[in-house]
Amino acid sequence: MDGTAERNISRVAMVMATIRQRIGGRILTPGAKLPSVRAMAVTAGVSTSTVVDAYERLVAEGVILSRQGSGFYVANQAAPFSLSEVGPKLDRAVDPFWVSRQSLEADDTNLKPGCGWLPPSWLPEDGIRRALRALSRAGNTALADYGSPLGLPPLRQHIARRMAERGMEASPDQIMLTESGTQAIDLLCRFLLEPGDTVLVDDPCYFNFQALLRAHRAKIVSVPYTPSGPNVELFAKAVEEYRPRLYITNSAIHNPTGATLSPVVAHRILKLADKLDLTIIEDDIFADFEHTPAPRLAAFDGLDRVIHIGSFSKTLSASARCGFIAAKREWVDGLIDLKIATSFGGGRLSAELVYKVLSDGSYRKHVEVLRSRLSKAMFEVSARLKDLGIVPWHEPSAGMFLWCRLPDDVDAADVARAALNRKIVLAPGNAFSLSQSAKNFIRFNVSQTLDKRVFDVLRETLGG
Q: Does the pTM of the predicted model rise above 0.85?
């Protein structure tokens, strides 16, 4: 930006600040007419175009109103903004929304070892900026038009190649882009479930699975999870007894435990699914964290009973919302119709951005560095937690999550609330457990748990 442009922006900001001060000081009250553009320009010593720009920005913010042929007026003001109302409610019950609300509502001064994403500094900022610059030079269609319901063809082709690298065969016409992994599951629940249908989940499982299923009025049944996958015997009993319509799981890197599905368990689960007409949604959003690809249910099944979903929020950007569904061909048209009904066209701009970053040769290098960085953080955080008597339930081979047991049956919800008072967001175990059997567990995101303050607060809270 050159010096002239910077000066113009600063003059606009000056005019805006002047108007805000007059409103704040009650010189201009709600409904009062602002000075005309020409009069304000003379008073402020700026051009009329500067005042027009400032007034238009204040209109966009809702501070003032424009009345055609009459001028600009102070808007009716809302109730005074109170900082005490900002931020997470400390007394909120530990439910499937607890971690999400605390993490998303917390400000930048909070530490977030309980959140499910990487620090922004760990993401490929340079690649995203290059992609944004390229998009700024794109044609009007890419910048302003709806995307096709199926989604950007080059990105779908890219996803098909990535799936093939992990042993899954899917043609681009079997892949539909979504706004996120969460939207992918939401669309599938709309497509496959009726209110009252039973859905099987792991215990523990990603808390938003529970939240989404409750929104769809499904009956949720859980099965204990082991370091090699769901407990097969209890899984078989649950399927026989409840005849669920769906089973939703992570197979590669499980959330929250970090465990990996074994081939033996995968085969037994698929045999049960085939026998009892069970559809499986396999959430694979952590795929790029793996050093060596783990077994995928979709690879064994060939997208017959398994629907494979993913997104790019964990390794690329949570702000550029883009996910996908890979399913058998006969279901794709129905999913397209449902997507049109609920969100019309696809988010083309995000898809274009994601494709440009993924197809940049630097992305693979970024992911390699990320895996190494996570491995180092996993080792360091695990060791420091063990020093406090907080023991990992399982030593993950990859990913960012440690599922840990607190000492002496300490209630994780109490620890989490105490930490929140110190501006640290933790993820207590029962937020992940349908059976509420994880009272003394906490999920740690190792990439967000490196700050010394986290361990200091844990030590004080645990009385160490």
A: no
